[in-house]
Design brief:
The complex is a heterotrimer. By secondary structure, chain A is α/β, with parallel strands linked by helices. In chain A, 45% of the residues lie in helices and 12% in strands. In chain A, the strands form four sheets. Chain A has a five-stranded mixed beta sheet. Chain A has a three-stranded antiparallel beta sheet with strand order 10-7-11. In chain A, helix 3 links the parallel strand 1 and strand 2. By secondary structure, chain B is an all-alpha fold. Chain B has one domain: MetI-like (MetI-like fold, Orthogonal Bundle). Helix content of chain B is 75%, strand content 3%. In chain B, helix 1 packs antiparallel against helix 13, helix 3 runs antiparallel to helix 10 and helix 7 packs across helix 11. The two termini of chain B are 26 Å apart. Chain C has a domain of 183 residues: MetI-like (MetI-like fold, Orthogonal Bundle), CATH 1.10.3720.10. Helix content of chain C is 74%, strand content 0%. The radius of gyration of chain C is 23 Å and the shape is globular. At the B-C interface, helix 1, helix 3, helix 4, helix 5 and helix 7 of B face helix 1, helix 4, helix 5, helix 6 and helix 8 of C.
């Protein structure tokens, strides 16, 4: 049996190669490959890349339960007025969108790009500045950008021009296990509108009484640091895009706070995302602080329904402009320059994501896709209580947080700076000096910028 | 046979040789050398994204001032020096054990030992990270044995994280290399072993005096492939440790990838770093060929 | 004494096998559990397999991805085995200084990280109108220095006197390759086939870059899709990973006898 399979495969090989050897050596191999390829070439050359003319659009995004679902619902909304409209959503993980965009734009062949792609807010500036030819300026497209929070649209504005229609919200929430807090004698109110030093003291108490840390996060990632930093309206770059790590009082305070949280055991670092979600689901921590999209992961542990509550995050103690609000993550829709039918794309976006409260009412309950479209927040759906989170009106709360979030400059070299800060905090935790490490991080960023 | 006729035959055979290797060589020229040439040109340019200008050898100078790149170079060489010999020796031992006619369940053993490299990276990364987590399996065992008091976070410390990468590499690729040795061993007459056994040679002696010398061409193949694979190591650095803690496990390829796709793209610089890898591998492969590629 | 050695050999092999199989067992168990239980580290089989399967089928086109993966992997394996074995044979049997130099140059081709050549390659493929085609998928890896060298190294053990005998019998060079070399080198072909199939099956970055059609999705792409969202369903992910690993394992199992219990003696 086994021999037979081998024999068949080898026989095929022989036949194909003989066919190849018939002609001259050079054309020989192409002939045989072509012979084999024609049999199997089913992926047409036209494929699913941007569809010119007619009434259809191709979109890349990546989460079937979230942004893909939202896109498909948007198509339904749009079809009510335009029954011929056809939307082709291609599931493409974010990392792959980045790779494909880079490859296509660098080689100058943009024909593989879709009409619309979803872009992480943190990568928006970098991509528009690196590949200006790949994007379409949508400032004058008819989308009303004033209907979105300014801090959110800022991510996709380059040189005063709009390149993105804001989509999901990354407003930061602090989630706590009320049952665990109760064991330590606290309620959710004791953790609302507090400072990090309150948090640390109460955290130590909770740890002593219940054995559970208040917070977990991924080692080597700077999410928590960036959230703390933005909550005080501080950034790693100034408005001109120069790094401002050194002499940044907020950053120094953030580093020191993070270090003391880890030292006290109130913040526990785990090694990857899966373990982080694990700490939430398997009840090894008493809470977390993250973008509001983390609620979806928390809710997968259905047996913990009613035991969670959300509130705002702690604020920095000694920094001017410190608030209890921040942002982590979020994405926006970009129209590529490969889009042949821009009028259709503009019309679609402005009548759905930038114009339909009904769309957001549909997608919110089943996907938790919280809008950054301000008029949607007035909808009744947003004041629905959530049973999982103790009957609280979580969506209204988060929308309120989002409105109070200070904006920050991602700059073009955002990822370089984030990674440099992550290296710095790792070294600081193992005992290095804060000022020296911040200086090193700034040097790394400067080096990357070619300064 | 007369002399001129033999020359003629040699020439004819020589020509057939070129004919045999032409298709493959042409494909490699088109699919590898042409892009490599373009990358070489790129390595003398600098700029963001598509906006590139000539810069001479700046990129090649720059990489030696780049602390992260130098760190990645050190890490990669550490993996190479420790991991490749361990893995190849282990694969040789396993292959010669499994090349035993009297062994039962040979097929099952072989398949099981090959499994790691067929297992998807996704599950293998998740498993390795959870095995070595603070409350993971390895720590539990070490605590039970009384070697540790509390869990040790292996992935949070530079040296232990590097050791985990090395363990992971050995685990994943030993079975892969074993395949080549097993296949190479089939070209050795079994009777040679039988004769040696009858003469009373110890298994160790058989291994060093018969197996290893006869497998030399295959050992050279695997040594060059593993050297190349390790210097271009990417998967483990990205998926197991994400280069951390604080870049202490990042590899050159991982850094090059970041430079092209994560950070503000600087393809000229990425290409220059890639060419350094080429030079390093080429030198090592050249030495290995000199030592191992002799026709006796 | 001999018995003792046997025990040692078995013990070593059993230990190596257990260490190797562990992740597969983990995948199997995880595929039968709910996502939350997987993340909590549950290590006993659950009863969620059917649910995970249904949910995987509802989310992703598993059949289509399997078909594509098989199609690409088989086409690539067959063609590249032919091209590379011809070349390896040519390099070794007819070796001279010139060919040894060419071999060394060819080895250089694998030494540059793919991240550096990917963009120039994409440019070439886009001007040759090969984006979104099977040809585009397979061409870059159709001839690899690795396979060429593998066949070159194993051709070293191909006895020269046999060739002389064949030539005297009037066989031409191509017939010698197909009638003499090809059958003798079964173990090398089987090993090369296993490895090439596996590499083709697992290839991710290049196919992803040149294929923009959802219809050309392969198994590794499907797995990548499953962990791209804000929430990962680990049970479903592990089931997909398991399905993605099985074909390579089967190919290995079917072929291992051919390369590990070769037909020494047939050469004589």
């Amino acid at each position: 049996m086994k021999r037979k399979i081998l024999a068949v495969l080898l026989a095929t090989a022989v036949t194909a190669s003989l066919a190849g050897c018939g002609s001259s050596a050079t054309t020989g191999d192409t002939a045989s490959t072509e012979a084999a390829a024609t049999e199997t070439a089913e992926a047409g050359t036209e494929a699913a890349a941007a569809t010119g003319g007619d009434n259809s659009l191709t979109v890349w995004c990546w989460d079937p339960a979230f942004n893909m679902y939202a896109m498909e619902q948007a198509a339904e909304v749009y079809k009510q007025e335009n029954p011929d409209f056809n939307l082709n959503v291609v599931e493409t993980p974010w990392a792959d969108i980045q790779t494909k965009l880079t490859t296509a734009a660098t080689s100058g062949d943009l024909s593989t790009l879709p009409d619309i792609m979803l872009m992480q807010d943190n990568a928006f500036q970098k991509n528009v500045i690196s590949y200006p030819d790949a994007f379409t300026d949508i400032t004058g497209s008819g989308v009303d950008f004033t209907k979105f929070a300014e801090a959110k649209t800022a991510y996709s504005v380059v040189d005063g021009k709009n390149y993105g229609v804001p989509f999901d919200n990354g407003a930061v929430i602090a989630c706590y296990r009320t049952d665990i807090l109760e064991q330590a004698g606290y309620t959710i109110d004791d953790f609302t509108d507090i400072t990090w030093s309150d948090y640390l003291e109460k955290g130590k108490d909770v740890l002593a009484k219940t054995g559970k840390p208040l917070l977990s996060c991924q080692a080597g990632e700077s999410d928590v640091i960036m959230m703390m930093l933005q909550s005080a309206g501080a950034s790693l770059f100034d408005a001109e895009g120069n790094p401002t790590l050194v002499d940044n009082a907020a950053l120094k305070e953030v580093m020191a706070t993070y270090q003391s949280l880890v030292e006290a055991g109130v913040l526990v670092e785990v090694n990857d995302w899966d373990q982080y979600v694990g700490t939430l689901n398997s009840e090894t921590v008493a809470g977390t602080i993250n973008g509001c999209w983390i609620m979806a992961s928390i809710q997968t542990a259905a047996d913990q329904s009613g035991k969670w509550a959300i509130t705002d995050m702690p604020k920095l103690d000694n920094v001017d402009g410190a608030t209890n609000y921040s942002n982590n993550g979020g994405s926006s829709w970009a129209v590529t320059s490969n889009c042949k039918n821009t009028d259709l794309a503009y019309d679609f976006l402005s009548k759905t994501f930038a114009g339909s409260t009904a769309l957001y009412e549909t997608i919110l309950p089943s996907s938790g896709a919280l809008a950054t479209y301000l008029p949607a927040a007035e909808s009744d759906v947003y004041s629905q209580p959530s049973e999982f989170f103790g009957g609280d009106t979580v969506f209204a709360k988060i929308t309120e947080f989002a409105g109070k979030t200070p904006s920050n400059n991602t700059g073009v070299y955002y990822y370089e700076a984030r990674d440099a800060v992550a290296v710095a905090i790792t070294n600081i935790i193992s005992g290095a000096d804060i000022d020296t490490e911040i200086q090193t991080a700034q040097d790394t960023v400067n080096f990357a910028m070619g300064k | 046979m007369s002399k001129p006729k033999k020359m003629n035959l040699n020439q004819k055979q020589n020509l057939s040789g070129w004919f045999f290797l032409a298709p493959a060589a042409i494909m490699i020229a088109l699919m590898s050398f042409l892009p490599m040439l373009k990358a070489l040109i790129l390595s003398f340019k600098t700029g963001i994204g598509t906006n590139m200008t000539w810069t001479g050898i700046t990129n090649y100078v720059r990489m030696f001032q780049d602390a992260v790149f130098m760190q990645s170079l050190k890490n990669t060489f550490l993996y190479l020096i420790i991991q490749v010999p361990i893995m190849l020796i282990l694969a040789l031992i396993l292959a010669s054990m499994l090349n035993d006619k009297h062994l039962r369940c040979k097929g099952l053993f072989r398949t099981m030992i090959f499994l790691p490299c067929a297992t998807s990276l996704v599950s293998y990364a998740i498993i390795f990270r959870s095995l070595f987590a603070v409350d993971g399996f390895v720590n539990t065992i070490l605590i039970k044995l009384g070697l540790l008091n509390t869990g040790y976070n292996f992935l949070a410390h530079p040296n232990s994280a590097r050791i985990i990468i090395i363990i992971a590499l050995v685990w994943r690729w030993t079975g892969y290399n074993m395949v080549f040795y097993l296949s190479g061993l089939q070209n050795i007459e079994y009777s040679v072993y039988e004769a040696a056994k009858i003469d009373g040679a110890s298994p160790f002696k058989i291994f060093t005096k018969i197996t290893v010398p006869l497998l030399k061409p295959t050992i050279l193949l695997t040594a060059i492939m593993s050297t190349n694979g390790t210097l271009q190591l990417f998967d483990e650095s990205v998926n197991l440790t994400a280069g951390g803690p604080a870049n202490s496990t990042i590899t050159m390829s991982h850094y090059i990838y970041n430079m092209s796709f994560k950070y503000v793209p600087n393809f000229g610089y990425a290409a220059a770093m890639s060419y350094l890898i080429l030079i390093l591998v080429a030198v090592l492969a050249f030495v290995q060929m000199k030592v191992g590629d002799k026709r006796d | 004494m001999i018995k003792l050695k046997r025990v040692g050999q078995y013990a070593f092999l059993i230990l190596a096998s257990i260490l190797s199989v562990f992740p597969l067992i983990y995948m199997l168990i995880a595929a039968t559990n709910k996502s939350v239980d997987v993340i909590k580290g549950k290590m006993i089989p659950g009863n969620y397999l059917i649910e995970n399967f249904k949910s995987l089928m509802a989310q992703q086109d598993v059949g289509g991805a399997m078909w594509n993966s098989f199609k690409y992997a088989i086409v690539l394996t067959v063609i590249s085995l032919i091209i590379c074995s011809l070349a390896g044979y040519g390099f070794e049997i007819y070796h001279d200084k010139g060919k040894d130099i060419v071999m060394n140059i060819i080895l250089l081709a694998m030494m540059v990280p793919f991240a550096a050549t990917m963009i120039p390659l994409f440019q070439m493929f886009s001007s040759a109108k090969l984006l979104n085609t099977t040809m585009g998928f397979i061409l870059p890896t159709i001839s690899t220095p690795f396979l060429i060298m593998m066949f070159r190294q194993s051709a070293r053990s191909f006895p020269h006197d046999i060739m002389e005998a064949a030539r005297i019998d009037g066989l031409n060079e191509i017939s010698i390759f197909f009638k003499m070399f090809f059958p003798t080198m079964r173990s090398t072909y089987a090993a090369a086939m296993t490895i090439t199939f596996m590499n083709a099956w697992n290839s991710y970055l290049w196919p992803k870059v040149i294929m923009s059609d959802a219809k050309s999705m392969t198994m590794p792409m499907l797995v990548a899709n499953l962990k791209a969202g804000y929430v990962t369903d680990y049970g479903v992910l592990m089931l997909a990973v398991l399905l993605c690993s099985i074909p390579t394992i089967i190919v290995f199992f079917l072929l291992q006898k051919s390369f590990a219990e070769g037909i020494t003696g047939a050469v004589k």
